[in-house]
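Kindly review both lines to help learners:
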Amino acid sequence: MKKWSFIIFSILLLWSSCMPFEENTNKNIQLDFSDKTLQGLINNQDKRNTDSLKYYLGSQNPTYRYVAAQAFSSSKDPLGLSSLYPLLEDPVDEVRAAAIHAIGQIGDTISVDNLLNAFEKLDSLREFSLSNSQILEAVGKCGKKEHLNQLVSIKTYEAKDTLLLLGQARGIYRFSLRNIIHPKGTKLMVDFVNNQNYPNNSRLIAAHYLHRSKQIEIDSSVQQLISTLYQETDPNIRMALVTGIAKSKLKFAQDSLIQFFDIETDYRVKSNIIRAMSFYNYDSSAPLMYKAIEDKNKNVQQTVANYFYNNGSVNDWKFYRNIARKTKDNWRLKYRLYAAASKNLNVYYTQANNNISLELIPQFKESKNSYEKVAILNALSEYEWNYLYLKNLGLDSNDPMLKTAGTEGLVKILSSKDFDKAFKETAGSINRRIRRYIKQAIKSKDAGAVTVAASALKNPKLKFKDYYSNEGYAYLDTVLMEIPIPEEMETYIAVKNSIDYLNGITPKDIKPLYNHPIEWNLVENLNSRVRCILQTNKGKIILEFYHQYAPATVANFIRLVKEGYYDNKSIHRVATNFVIQGGCSRGDGYGSEPFTIRSELSGLYYDDEGYLGMASAGNDTESTQWFITHSPTPHLDPNYTIFGKVKEGMDIVHSTEIGDIIEKAVIKF
């Protein structure tokens, strides 16, 4: 009897071991970075060890499954798909959602059926609201047009279905970023924006759909959208909505936007109204610009100068120049207006162009500010005959910022549609001379100059293939071998892609090899109270960290702060109502350090102002440069690591200008 009892028990034990795993006790995600197993898992993510990560996807610990799934969101490795699919039935909603997000990030159309089959249609208790929402968005990242048709046909979601509405909005938006549009989708996004009973996060995405989507038809909805604009209390929605309204190109829509400008108080909305005027002819928009150039906010003024630069009229070139002459305390505005004046002059206005150049050269020589000098070189590059100034004052300079700017100017002149008209019978010889200067830039070993010049070789309009047909371009291989990587990864990619183009080879994605282990001693003791204080010449910006989502990125940033790396570095880029960017060792955006870190694309969203993200030249190329957003930027979501947010000091972020200095960066525990 004992023998039979043992046999029966053994059979039951064997049978139970073959049953699908059900987890009844532990459904909590607990990120304890002192856990050595968790550290090993994240190290495998950092090393992009796909096989090891697959192992963790089958763990009984939901935290390990969750983190392993997130790892594939970052690597976007399609070899992980078959191992991610089983997690679509995971008992833990957060784990399912992480797997779904990873599948969407990988973006393979073959995944759509698996995603749709995983949708919990009978989720009355809303146990899987998060994963259901993620499915709707993920379909937008990897689906085809017929899948968009299915997505836009859903009419059953109500205002209380917050996550489902958000997922549907994001899915339609992701389709639009891939230029897959459906009229029903546009109508649905219009309805979302207009219905203020819907959650703001869904309405925000819908507004950005109208802001970014191409070739959408909204004429019949414009009147209601204008009414919504005037009632809208959220500036994040207003700033996206004004662009959508302008896309109609209807006169009454333009008039409404111009009137709204007078009552708007948020500079970001005002800036977008100015940009939106590019959908209309210059004469109808100019009165607004004449008024807005006097705005008290420098960001608004700069946006107007950019409008004049991009859309101006030859009839107004004197106006741009005269405002530039009167501007005394804002060199950014001053030289953008000079650039607008020169650009909008007809090529045959040689005397006027020469006069502008003669005004700019002494100011260049007097300036002690490299950023101001770069702005002057940019203005000089609008007149073709200034190519020697760009070579002598820019390319030949020892200042890397000026070298980059000079190279950019030479490329711009070579690309000018008026090149032959400007140089007439000397066009051929000057064309060859500038091409030699571009070759000089490539051989200079300067990261900025090499990147800019090498990128020009891929421009089919410049016909560098023909230019090199006789003398060859083997020297590019030598340049490539001498580029220090991973420090100058962006430069390496630019040169390699140009070589492939000239050889008729389709460029492949180039990623740096693993070279910078995570410093766990900097991560283990982090908590929600840790802050970074950026003391700038304008005031303090206080940052909080999202180490639970991007531990490697946070550790890297903290190490650099502790080493004083960011002290006395400039904000080298400011794009109005987009970002401020810092962390460049050169000051022109081409500086880095001899290491790269991995992208950590955990599923956070750029759905508000003040997010701290990593700049990159492609997946896994991040190093030292970071940015802070002025406003929601959902088009960045899939590709740029979020590792923190501004806790205090957004007013300083909004007032920051290019060339402002981070005097000191400090970590407070």
In short: Strands lie at 531-536, 539-545, 569-575, 579-582, 611-614, 626-629, 642-648, 661-668. The first helix runs from residue 2 to 18. DSSP finds 32 helices and eight strands in the chain. The mean pLDDT is 94.
